Amino acid sequence: MKTILVPVEESDVLRSMLATALHTARRFDSYIEGLHVRPALPGVVAAGAAGLVAATPDLVESFERQDEARTETAKKLYDAFLEEQGIPRGRPEGAVEAPIAGWLEEVAPGDDVVGSYGRSFDLIVVGRPVRGSLTPAMATLEAALFESGRPILIAPPTPPASVGDEIVIAWNGSTETARTIGFGMRFLRAAKKVRVLSIDNSMVPGPTGAQMAQYLTRNGVPAESVDALANGRGPGAAMLEEAARLGCDLMFKGAYTNSRLRQMIFGGATSHILAEANIPIFMAH
Q1: pTM of the entire predicted model
Q2: CATH code, 114
Q3: Torsions phi, psi of 110, nearest 5?
Q4: How far apart are CA 6 and CA 251, in angstroms?
């Protein structure tokens, strides 16, 4: 986890995203890069009497001014947080030996750049979408998750006090969760305690929680298995409630064991956790 990408956009969750990234950077002596994506203007059109026509110069200029103001605000928030936390600025060319942060602006028509550029980082920190707010956007989260080939760390709405001291793995036996564990071995080995949590009604064919805990122990991870009953709760709610009961500050969760379409229509553990989690979530697909 030596390189961390953070898409930066003004939002109520931005401070939590930066705090989550910084906790991680201090744990692993990492480089953080703030990425601000500016929309590509050629796609802007205006509705006229004859239908859709190219945007007028005045309209383009107005969009440019708004975009410049939005970019300036995002950079000021990013810089202010780094100054407050005493993090130096720079783009290291060699090995990173202490937390340091850089900044990049990209012009792109959508969020896909987060996924494509994120392939050159170990981890992408995004914010959990919040009901009633346009930012952080679910599109940014999904671009990072599905297009980068890298794990993501989802920051909760409120800045966490710690990240990764006590980890809970939301284990359901799935390929996605096994892959998430593989991506996160550095986090797991650095933790004080790791619980492999299994909920009785959420398992798919695969190893038991005890078997996964044994695998982790053999790899130097301080792991133990915990089995819990759903007691009428959905898998996602049960996982979050049990994680809170155990006092964990980071959850590992495989993304979308069921199809994304089914999750959207019927809900599911991933969808519930993305909507309700109040601790950081380490996720891979």
Answers
A1: 0.90
A2: 3.40.50.620
A3: -165, -165
A4: 19
Pair (140, 195) in one structural domain: no
What are 135-157's pLDDT values in tens digits? 888 999 999 999 999 999 999 99
Burial of 134 (0-12, 13-18, 19+ CB in 10 A): exposed
Tokens read off for 174: 């799935």
178-191 confidence digits (pLDDT tens): 999 999 999 999 99
Helices H, strands E: what count in the chain? 10, 12
Residue with tokens 């986890």: 1
Question: Which position has the higher pLDDT, 132 or 267?
Answer: 132
The closest alpha carbon to 241, from 202, 267, 273, 201, belongs to 273
- DSSP H stretches of helix in the chain: 14-28, 57-85, 112-117, 138-147, 175-183, 185-190, 209-218, 235-246, 260-266, 269-276
Residue pair 228/199 in contact (Cβ under 8 Å)? The answer is: yes
Whether 187 and 150 map to the same domain: the answer is no
**The two structure tokens encoding residue 136:** 């952080």
Do residues 74 and 122 share a domain?
yes
Angle (CA) 108-58-70 rounded to 5° is: 45
- Give the range of the structural domain holding residue 124, as residue numbers without chain letter: 3-41+67-155
